[in-house]
Amino acid sequence: MLGAFSGFIAGLLGVGGGLIIVPVLLYVLAFEVQEAVLMHTAIGTALAVIVFTSISSVWAHHRHGAIYWQYFIKLTPTILLGAFSGAIIAQYLSFDFLRIFFAIFEIMVAMIMWFGISAAGHVDNLNRWVWLVTGYIIGLVSAIVGIGGGTMTTPFLIYNKVDIKNAIATSAAVGMPIAIAASIGFIVAGWNTKNVVGSLGFIHIQALFSIVVMSVIFAPLGVKVAHSVDGKKLKKFFALFLVILAISVLSF
Q1: How confident is the model at residue 148, as a pLDDT?
Q2: Averaged pLDDT, 212-230
Q3: Which residues, listed in sequence order, are joined to residue 199 by a DSSP beta bridge?
Q4: Taking a C-beta distance cutoff of 8 angstroms, is the pair 54, 16 a contact?
Q5: Can you tell me the distance from the alpha carbon of 69 to that of 173, in angstroms, rounded to the nearest whole number?
Q6: 148 in helix, strand or coil?
Q7: 81, 110, 129, 180: which sits with the fewest CB atoms below 10 Å from its CB?
Q8: CB 139 within 8 A of CB 81
């Protein structure tokens, strides 16, 4: 069920699915994984799932011709660096810090989306250093909180006058390198950690493959719905979705 729903939302909102997977895994793995590494394992596993889900989602968005690959190319170099370093940094952060940071971040992004805050200029007029810094921050924060970057990339593009459907599609593409770099980082960071049997660093292998099977199937369905609904309604739904997830993590 988690795989199906997270895959659908990944395709619909271009968020990678980690926003859903992390909170649910906190509950599912709570009796199996030590609390000291529970959040790290939930995040690492979610990022590994995103690697597979994003491939399915990106292909579906690409078939609609909705991905702006030029923005993907501008963001990716520093996103890779940020994602890997974020995974390494995360191992030194406490469970409560990661949980609260995740929730506050989601609420802030939701407010930007809901109130339609945007820049004066267009994304094509941004300086190269803005792309480099933004890419690094997106990769860093995404790895720390276990997301594919859509909750940062999508608002960033929308803020700079990109249509929401194209922003979602491009964010889905951006999520792939984030997930790959961060997953490698979480494997390295948790390599010598005493975790559950069958884990790979901070990645829970059984949970990974159980979720991936359905998420890959349902991601294209989410993409289909995203390209058939009104953009304004989609933006409002995105904002509400983030607030609900933030509350669920704070209440854990």
Answers
A1: 66
A2: 85
A3: 204
A4: yes
A5: 8
A6: coil
A7: 129
A8: yes
In 3-state terms, what secondary structure has residue 194? coil
- Nearest Cα neighbor of 39 from 121, 82, 100, 83 is 100
Which residues have C-beta within 8 Å of that of residue 78, sequence separation ≥ 6? 131, 132, 133, 134, 135, 136, 139
Tokens of 119: 């820049």
Determine the pLDDT at residue 119.
Answer: 54
What phi and psi values does residue 193 have, to the nearest 5 degrees?
-90, 135
Residue 252 has pLDDT above 70, yes or no: no
Q: Which residue has the tokens 């099977």?
A: 213
Q: CA 132, CA 134: separation in Å to the nearest integer? A: 6
On the CB side of 235, CA atoms within 13 Å amount to 21
Q: Burial, 182: exposed, middle or buried (Cβ in 10 Å; 0-12, 13-18, 19+)?
A: buried
Question: In this predicted structure, what is the pLDDT of residue 211?
Answer: 92
Query: Cα-flanking dihedrals φ and ψ of residue 200, to 5°?
Result: -120, 95
Q: How many CB atoms lie within 10 A of CB 120?
A: 7
DSSP state of 125: G
Most confident of 111-115, 203-207, 225-229: 203-207
CA distance 29 to 38: 7
Between 10 and 122, name the one with better pLDDT. Answer: 10
pLDDT of residue 209: 92
Neighbours of 163 (CB within 10 A): 13
pLDDT higher for 51 or 125? Answer: 51
Give 24-78 as a DSSP string: HHHHHSTTTS-HHHHHHHHHHHHHHHHHHHHHHHHHHHHHTT---HHHHHHHHHH
